[in-house]
Write a structure and sequence with these properties.
single chain, alpha+beta, eight-stranded antiparallel β-sheet, five-stranded antiparallel β-sheet, 11 helices
Amino acid sequence: MSTLLTKQTRHMTGWANYPGIMATVYEPQNAAALRALVREQEQLIARGNGKSYGDASLAPVMVSTLSLTNILHFDTENGIVTCESGVLLRDLLRVIIPAGWFFPVTPGIKAITVGGAIASDVHGKNHPVAGCFSQHLHSFTLVTADGSLVNCSRTENPDLFWQTCGGMGWTGVILSASFQLMRIQSTQMWQKTVRASDLSGLFRAFEAHQDWPYAAAWVDCTHARRRGAVYFARHMETQDGPLVFAEKKVKNIPFFAPSWFLNPLSIRAYNYFYHRKSVDGERAVDLDHYFYPLDSLQNWNRFYGRRGLVQYQFCLPEAKAEEGMHNMLKIIEKSGETPFLSVLKRHGERPTEAIHSFPIKGYSLALDFPRTAGMPALVKQLDECLLRYEGKIYLTKDALSRPEMGRVNPATFGEQKFCSLLKTRIAH
């Protein structure tokens, strides 16, 4: 085995610790080793930092991009970064913030790779004004099935560009990418918290505060009326002194919690105290606090025990969102399953070219459940309800849904050698 290519066979899962498989994982150290590997393998899929929840980056043969970590160029005048696909957003933040730049779109964790951000076409708390990651992507270089390097942008190989954005790795392995940043004047955010006594109140709060660029709501799904709080924010415009990315001190969850730790009673208690500390008002918070709250707990997925978790994240059209979510939550209540964490977000129009992006104009709800024997049956019911409301799921988070929910079929586009565990996963 070349020193430029490492190989391991081990048990692999996504961030949710379900599903899991034995896989051969290759890690090329440079572009030449990556291209040679892709040419040699009949089937494989790329994997970044493994933060996808379901089977998005699982296959019997996987190629890790975590050694492709070079920042190739940073145009500090215009805010354009070019880097390899294995660079973590966290590492970029430490470089771009002191220069006065930030991501125009960022998901809720910073330990993901740039390649993963493109493959999932990640969105953030500002979708109505900024869209998904792809809307700020200038170009990327893709390694296709025969090892060729293909440059993709809106003008060069545009079909392959849009098939790759949100395409979950079906088209090849992203080698490097160039994308636009946004200028910031401060590392502080001005946050406004609006509490609501029920789900309808949360929807009204979103509608009444559309002038705030960032918004996300916590929903107490253990409460009969689905109370919650919306956290709005905007970038502050001035700051004394240099810009420094102040990251919260990280606390580690050192071991997997016992299976009984998260149960309906403890989940209800957590949501009760979270509601108590969510107070109406406005205050300054730092970037890390507002955008990446989960990053303060390393290995927080261990709270769910070795059984893992199932996240069901779906989006509903604006006109049907409130009614549809009420009905989806009724199905969950009747099932006896209890989501630990629930996050509601508002979304804007999706560009017609962004054929695989998750958000549609409307609202999304992300629900984190402890994985139990009843989850497959519940997901089946939720899928059926979601189809009636013309909604869709987020493939990056999916662990149990069926192909009708919008899974990407590798036979429909791109190079067919890039395959996922679709059949194996559905068999669960």
